[in-house]
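Supplementary Note 3. Input sequence used for the single-chain structure prediction.
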Amino acid sequence: MTKGSARRFRVKAEKLLRLYSLWQETRREDIRRQCLKLLGQIVAADPSFTLRGQFRNAF
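The predicted structure, written as discrete structure tokens, is reproduced below.
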């Protein structure tokens, strides 16, 4: 993974965390779809990705 792609990956992971948090508050279907789409992109780039690590770092 190059330096630029690692940064893009990290930005996507942070965005996913924000979207997931928003979805937990609102339960809006459009936000859920955005979360799943973004999660699919992240997992395609890194199959070992888990949200658990992101939550641990955020909270």
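The helical segments are 3-26, 29-45, 51-58. Residues 4 and 55 are 23 Å apart (CA to CA).
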